[in-house]
Write a sequence for this structure.
């Protein structure tokens, strides 16, 4: 069945711009289906259930997890849980849509266990200095928090070798187009 669509999993270090690249793809390539995460946190102003997140309570999240309906999940900042519902991903792939998950490194590792046939793409900064600028340039964290984030970023960058492909986020549009090209004309993993 030529031209099989493949699941592409986009991950990378903190502050590399995964969300920005995913937003670019969402706005320019409506043919690409982007996974919507489930979360136990309450909606922020303007967020729409089913569009930004599936907002669920703890009991519903527990049920999804217990029944194996999450490809991956994590507790973020010790509070809310986030996860990728498996059903919509399977439906999108079955319908022949180019399908993408934009998740963190921990999530990507869990998805590799569940769906090893996916193509795993690492979004990398042009340079370490560039990533430091993005992390520190926000100016929202104190020194201890900055150091913690930089240490996390070092560890996350070291995971690059676990991925099938690397895309350098030197330009959002270029990176987004390269990502879409991997979905629409899937390469072999070799």
């Amino acid at each position: 069945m030529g031209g099989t669509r493949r699941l592409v999993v986009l991950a990378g270090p903190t502050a590399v711009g995964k969300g920005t690249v995913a937003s670019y793809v969402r706005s320019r390539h409506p043919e690409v289906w982007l996974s919507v995460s489930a979360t136990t946190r309450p909606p922020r102003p303007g967020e729409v259930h089913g569009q930004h997140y599936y907002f669920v309570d703890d009991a519903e999240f527990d049920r999804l997890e217990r029944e194996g309906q999450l490809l991956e999940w994590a507790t973020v900042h010790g509070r809310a849980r986030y996860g990728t519902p498996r059903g919509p991903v399977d439906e999108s792939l079955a319908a022949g849509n180019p399908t993408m998950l934009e998740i963190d490194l921990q999530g990507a590792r869990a998805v590799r266990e569940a769906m090893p046939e996916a193509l795993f793409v690492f979004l990398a900064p042009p340079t370490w200095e560039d990533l430091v600028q993005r992390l520190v340039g926000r100016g929202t964290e104190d020194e201890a928090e900055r150091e913690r984030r930089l240490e996390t970023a070092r560890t996350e960058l070291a995971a690059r070798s676990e991925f099938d492909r690397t895309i350098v986020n030197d330009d959002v549009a270029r990176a987004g187009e390269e990502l879409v090209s991997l979905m629409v004309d899937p390469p072999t993993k070799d």
